[in-house]
Amino acid sequence: MRPRDHGVAHDDMKKCRACGETKSRMFDFHVDRKAKDGLMGVCKDCNKARGRAWREAKKQDRSANREAVRRYRAKNAPEIDRKNRERYRANLDENRARERERWRRRVAEGRVTPKDPRKVRARKALETAIRNGSVVRPDACPQDGCEGLSDTVEFHHTDYDRPLEGIWACTMCHRRLHHA
């Protein structure tokens, strides 16, 4: 029950449990539905101070814990890596099945669209060609009239069935190619 709902006057006063000051019930105490009078026993100012102190203590605890975890991981990195690899391998099929199911659910809900297998194949073929050196990514956008606003050079596939045929363009020019 809110104190305002059952006619508490503006001049009704209440003593704070924390600071001992007498303050206005209407303006200086938060609502607490479990309390008899419908108000917290601690005034808003003391409640804020208590919250600030709690957050600061938690922040120090977290930073100390973070540092301890960092030291532990640095000391035991090979063992941790080995255990993670074992756990990953032991649950590989289960993890893959879970990911497939999650993907199917997201597609069914309309949150994502299924990837076009031709696009995936074309991108992988291009990545492989770049890695083995048969295709070289240019440093700058080769498009005429490019202002050079973007640093990233991307490949625009004109035909996904021919994965190595296309146009190199910066992000902005690539966007223009799609919307032209």
What does this structure look like?
This protein is an alpha+beta fold and 180 residues long. The chain has 3 domains: 3-50, Wheat Germ Agglutinin (Isolectin 2), domain 1 (2-Layer Sandwich), CATH 3.30.60; 76-114, no CATH class; 117-179, no CATH class. Helices cover 51% and strands 13% of the residues. It is built from 6 helices and 6 strands; from the N terminus they run E-E-H-E-E-H-H-H-H-E-E-H. It has helices at 25-28, 44-75, 77-90, 92-108, 117-132, 171-179; strands at 13-15, 22-24, 29-31, 39-43, 153-157, 166-170. The strands form 3 sheets. A two-stranded antiparallel ribbon has the order 1-2. Strands 3-4 form a two-stranded antiparallel ribbon. A two-stranded antiparallel sheet has the order 5-6. A hairpin with a 7-residue loop joins strand 3 (29-31) and strand 4 (39-43). The longest helix has 32 residues, at 44-75. The termini are far apart. Residues 1-8 have low confidence and may be disordered.
